Amino acid sequence: MPIRIADLFCGIGGVAEAISQGPGTTAKDHTTGRAPAQQVNQMDTSAVVMAIDIDQSVTSLYSQQHGVMPQCSTIESLEYVQLPDSADKIDMWWMSPPCQPYTSRGLQRGCNDSRSNALANLINLIPSERPRFVGFENVPAFRGSRHHRKLQQTLHETGYQTREYLICPTELGVPMRRKRFYLLARRDKGKLDDFASTCPMRSLANFVDTPSWDNAALHVTAELIGRYRPAMNIIDLQDTSAVTACFTSAYGKSPVRSGSYLHCQRRGIIRRFSANEIASLMGFRKHFFSSCDLELRSQYRLIGNSLSVDVVSALLSILLVD
After folding, report:
1. Please, where in the chain does CATH 3.40.50.150 lie?
2. Residues 169, 56, 15, CA angle at the centre, nearest 5°?
3. How far apart (Å, rounded) are the C-alpha atoms in residues 191 and 224?
């Protein structure tokens, strides 16, 4: 029976993208990336049937790429997680709430930050809604927060098996640092496996789009370089071992601590990564943003707030196994 998924705080659809790409590498078989023959990975029959996000700018792109029109609404006032005019049960929730209440760059006000109210409401709904599976993602600083403890307690008291992970895409061979906290939970007694990977690191060159060098909008001005170069993470195109910094929603706006820059000595250019290149590093399909009409700044904001599709795929391969 298909697993019906609610993509809460859906953004541009990292979970839907992972589902469309199928099972990823799991702790069960690192050579083939498949679960043992006696087990069935339900990713093959899973589908996102419901998506919610307060950001109206994601609706058209999400619908175009994933075939589901997100509900543009707040989650803090949600009374249940269910499709309108349908009695069918939602089998799985994926939650990627705003990270600002917990991020080390923010004020870390946690439950005192109004942006955490939506997560608080969902935690309170778990005992009555009782989805079969729960997936959760946030910044590492979420671990140990009051909402983390409340989520753990609620899941335990409602009869879920849980497992927590700290994973960076570099562990899956992706040359991009983006360590995140993940929590998986399921209501049956099936044990959730550990995550481990021995994937070789892929070359950053595989993610670079050559025509982007001709896009003047991506070029960094000499004035900006002169002012901020010591604090900018600039990567040489010829460096075969290069790994980018974490790209944030501030990329293209804040010149430092928001992501990496590319330098091509032959061209004499230092430029920003394009939104499509970052999306590729995040595991999205090639040219993900090419057919949308969003401004570049909006594309950077949306991809900076999204998920590593490779990591989510690997974790869903652990969670959705019968």
Report:
1. 3-196+308-319
2. 30
3. 52
**pLDDT per residue over 38-83, tens digit each?**
466 788 889 999 999 999 999 999 999 999 999 999 999 899 998 8
**How many contiguous H segments (helices) and E segments (strands) does the chain have?**
8, 9
Q: How many CA atoms lie within 13 A of 292 on its CB side?
A: 23
**Rounded Cα–Cα distance for residues 109 and 294 (Å):** 31
Instruction: Show the tokens assigned to 144.
Output: 């140990």
pTM: 0.92
Instruction: Name the fold adopted by 204-301.
Output: DNA Methylase; Chain A, domain 2 (3.90.120)
Task: State the Cα–Cα distance between residues 62 and 167, nearest whole angstrom.
Answer: 25
Tell me how far apart the alpha carbons of residues 303 and 13 are, in angstroms, rounded to a whole number.
10
- Give the DSSP letter string of 222-263: HHHHHHHGGGSEEEETT-TT--BPPP-TTTTTSSSSS-EEEE
Check whether 37 has a pLDDT greater than 50: no
Position 247, amino acid: F
DSSP summary character for residue 6: E
Do β-strands 133-138 and 92-95 pair in parallel, antiparallel, or remain unpaired? parallel
> pLDDT of 252-272, one tens digit each?
999 999 999 999 999 999 999
